[in-house]
Amino acid sequence: MGRPALLLLALCAAGARGLYFHIGETEKRCFIEEIPDETMVIGNYRTQMWDKQKEVFLPSTPGLGMHVEVKDPEGKVVLSRQYGSEGRFTFTSHMPGDHQICLHSNSTRMALFAGGRLYREERFRLTSESTNQRVLWWSIAQTAILLLTGIWQMRHLKSFFEAKKLV
């Protein structure tokens, strides 16, 4: 098919810049960016597959994404996270200096072909978990209402019988 290509639209720290490069399935691309102290960095990105035969970018596969890792000048990890095929990542530098920003594709050939199925399974799992959570809270609310109604009925009947002087 093709190889994953990463299109990093903009990395905004002190100014807006853009990068564009190809990443193989197992490749990792790093670059060093000098970032001032306490600066919020926002990176907008898009990953796409390159079709060698047609020499065009294919629409993004839902299973295709990237992993971003950012290290500060002392080598401490500031950000290490998996992202989808398109979006943005942000981090704040807590010390001035050269920060290492590494990107690599999360794909394998299997993931690229199964991307649509994995995406549907993930959506189904999230929907199931959400429904399960709602059912749990609904049953807790019903139980609380049932208990409160029972307590109210017992107090009401007790006061009724006391008023009639039957107890």
UniProtKB/TrEMBL annotation:
- State where it is primarily located: endoplasmic reticulum
UniProt xrefs under PROSITE patterns: GOLD
The signal peptide stretch is 1-18
Sequence ranges assigned to domain GOLD in this UniProt record: 28-167
Of the GO CC terms on this record, one is:
endoplasmic reticulum membrane
Presence of the UniProt keyword Transmembrane helix in the record: yes
Q: Which SMART domains match?
A: EMP24_GP25L
Keywords linked to the UniProt accession: Endoplasmic reticulum, Membrane, Signal, Transmembrane, Transmembrane helix
The family assignment reads: Belongs to the EMP24/GP25L family.
Its protein name is: Transmembrane p24 trafficking protein 4
